[in-house]
Amino acid sequence: MTEKPVPVPNADTQPFWDACNEERLIVQTCKACGHVQFYPRALCVKCDGRDLDWRDAKPSGKVHTFSIVHRAPTPAFRADSPYVLALIDLDDGFRMMMNVVNCPPENVSIDMAVRIVFEERNGQRLPQAEPASD
Amino acid sequence: MTKKAVISGVHNTKVGEVPGSTCMSLHTEAALGALDDAGLKLSDIDGVICAYALSENYPMLSSAFCEYVGAEPNFNAGLHGGGATGAMMVMQAAALVQSGTCRHVLCVTGDNRLTGMTRDKAVAALSEFGHPQFEQPYGISIPAAYGLVAQRYLHETGATLEHLAALSVLHRKHAAMHPDAHMTKPISMDDVANARVISSPLRLLDCCLISDGGAALVISAGDAGADLRKRPIEVLGSGQGHTHEHIVAAPSLIDFGCKTAAARAFGTAGVTNADIDVAEIYDSFTITLLIELESIGFYEKGEAGEAALNGELTHGGRLPCNTHGGLLSFGHSGAAGGMYHVVEAVRQLRGEADARQVPDAEVAFVHGDGGILSAHCSLILGRA
User: Fold this and answer.
1) Which domain does A40 fall in, by range?
2) Is A87–B248 a contact, with Cβ atoms under 8 angstroms apart?
3) Same domain for A69 and A16?
4) Number of A:B CB contacts under 8 A?
5) Which of A69, A99, A121 sits opposite B141 (nearest CB)?
6) How many separate helices (H) and strands (E) can be counted in chain B?
7) Residue-wise pLDDT tens digits, B116-135
8) Which residues contact residue A79 at a Cβ distance below 8 angstroms, ignoring those fewer than 6 apart?
9) N or C: which terminal CB in chain A sees fewer CB atoms within 10 Å?
10) ipTM beyond 0.95?
11) Does some domain include residue A116?
12) DSSP assignment letter at A26
């Protein structure tokens, strides 16, 4: 655990992670009922539909909640402490966990507007949030 | 008419640093203690339920336990509900005796997370509760996940850090009255406020302990009373609620499955929260208990903290709560952590709680939650 974990895509999530590598945020939608869901699954959790699609999501949102982590869970995250763990409500109506980066932790607040940036980690890019205004 | 199920035996080991303990030695000590308490022998047991352990790797822990003690029950299974496991075991075992599948079911938990694996390893192992692709890459830990919940909860309800601190101080005070508790040194509101931040807004003393320890229960058919040594305690009602596993997928950070679980338990028991004499409610963090007291309906949103500050949650108050000191101070040993709440409720209802006794306690509420306020199970227990 000396390196930060890198997401390992599976059949449900491969398109999502492939899009991240192109610096695009995409989200799964149900063709039957239109439900937008995160994380990607093999069925729609609203209508049990199996016919699912992907669409581009706006790379912006706001902080629903956050925590400044002082006690890192593994050595890989210790150098970053304190860092900000957050739940981000994307403007297209779904929620993701990210770090709020490129700003001092003490500047983060609930409802703060963020935009999505991508962090490269061992060949896989992953979405992160940074303040929308500088 | 539905057959009754009773809790016939309970036991907890010493909790805290238990040098020389192993996962199996704690299971064995807890199990034999509960059997002795019930006045039963291992050969009387026809059902066994175990949970899980972090310190030793047993993919089939319940089978490994039966092998270790030489038991050959006609029902044996593992149950994984995180901190809800203890209450879930009671619910499952009650169903087994009510259906006639078993007569006496032994539920056993134990882990030596403190001396068996170091705090760092326990914290790292617990971070794997996060979603492997969508949470773990961001450095989630269990305290960080509860920090996310706490930040939002304080924002929406107006609850304060002082409210959380009041719960921490309360638990230490209660633990000091229990001879088996892990942490008994008194703490003040200032101690909590000055403790180092683990994951904001939660500080060290907002977080549960990591302890060695074990606990076991025997659940028996309601007509087994003549075989038993002590007053049986009836399982009057039970219920579960499940909304998510990972905090990223939680539908709300304000209300959780505890609301549904408790409503179902109260409904099956035919009682209301006004009938509860003593409550033993999961307290992995101060925020956990605050939210559950409010979400379950014992208090309105934003009021449980004031109640703690006003002394309502201790002896002589409106709702004596976590009279053993809870996970915050009695101790947390994995699945055994949630069992300690059940054990304490039974002792209170039997009148065996010595210095901690709530006078004339007749009906108890027990609640366990696992994950990040994910899996919930409530029990209503009463004097049979």
Assistant:
1) 9-57
2) yes
3) no
4) 109
5) A69
6) 11, 11
7) 887 778 777 877 889 999 99
8) none
9) C
10) yes
11) yes
12) E
